[in-house]
């Protein structure tokens, strides 16, 4: 019997510009599915059509509990280049309940595998970054073993992303990459997080494309932080 998903850390609302549900619709859907903790993580300002920078300054107005769900207001910050520059500064990062950082092809200037990996490693060591989103989607060639070992050291979680495996995305390499990350995390006992990357309320806590990968690697439930919110917050060094 599958364990209950209690935490979905990576979701987007209409504020991101290319998603389709409001914040309240997303939280209500989480409540309906029994999710206890929900991350609302709009895209950072380098993605076209996303919310203005003022959005991240005004997040204090949002209740952190709605419909019985604890809400974490955050951002999916963009890693911009091989120097590891981010598109939110320290002030705004400090305002977030949760900070995810990821590479998106529309605002990424990459390099070699080694250069790309060094950029992500630098971001993983940033004390205000908690999760690296979809490192296995193939946007940048990366050394996954280096990232897994850095995750163990820095307590920045690597994400296995359900949205990346949608056939419409055309990311044919994502399956094999994510299998590699899963095997490495299992080998080294490093926890990770499943990302719904929901862009509509119906996708909240939907990891259906990831379940075959978890089964194929016989990945232990104990290392999946979506099932263990207390362990999640302890690992990333936050309280909620």
Secondary structure layout plus pairing:
Layout: E1 7-8, H1 23-32, E2 37-43, H2 53-57, E3 65-66, E4 69-78, H3 90-93, E5 98-102, H4 113-124, E6 131-133, H5 144-154, E7 157-161, H6 174-188, E8 193-195, H7 211-217, H8 229-236
Helix pairs in contact: 4-5, 5-6, 6-7
Keywords for this entry:
240 residues, alpha/beta, 8 helices, eight-stranded mixed sheet, 8 strands
**Individual helix count:** 8
Helix content: 25-40%
How would you spell out the order of helices and strands? EHEHEEHEHEHEHEHH
Radius of gyration: 16 Å
Q: Which class best fits the helix and strand makeup?
A: alpha/beta
Strand content: 15-25%
Beta-strand segment tally: 8
For the report, how would you describe the main beta sheet?
A: 8 strands, mixed
Summarize model confidence as the mean pLDDT.
Answer: 96
């Amino acid at each position: 019997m599958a364990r209950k998903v209690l935490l979905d850390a990576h979701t987007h609302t209409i504020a991101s510009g290319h998603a389709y549900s409001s914040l309240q619709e997303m939280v209500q859907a989480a409540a309906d599915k029994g999710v206890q903790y929900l991350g609302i993580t709009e895209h950072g300002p380098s993605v076209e059509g996303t919310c203005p920078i003022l959005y991240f300054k005004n997040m204090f107005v949002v209740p952190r509990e709605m419909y019985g769900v604890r809400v974490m207001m955050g951002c999916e910050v963009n890693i911009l280049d091989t120097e590891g520059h981010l598109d939110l500064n320290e002030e705004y990062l400090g305002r977030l309940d949760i900070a995810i950082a990821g590479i998106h092809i529309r605002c990424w200037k990459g390099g070699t595998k080694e250069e790309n990996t060094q950029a992500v490693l630098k971001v993983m060591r940033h004390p205000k970054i908690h999760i690296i989103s979809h490192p296995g989607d193939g946007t940048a060639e990366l050394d996954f073993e280096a990232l897994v070992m850095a995750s163990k050291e820095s307590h920045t979680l690597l994400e296995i992303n359900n949205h990346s495996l949608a056939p419409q995305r055309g990311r044919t390499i994502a399956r094999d990459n994510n299998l590699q990350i899963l095997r490495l995390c299992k080998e080294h006992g490093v926890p990770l997080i499943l990302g719904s990357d929901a862009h509509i309320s119906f996708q909240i806590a939907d990891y259906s494309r990831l379940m075959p990968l978890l089964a194929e690697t016989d990945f232990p439930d104990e290392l999946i932080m979506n099932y263990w919110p207390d362990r999640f917050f302890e690992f990333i060094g936050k309280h909620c």
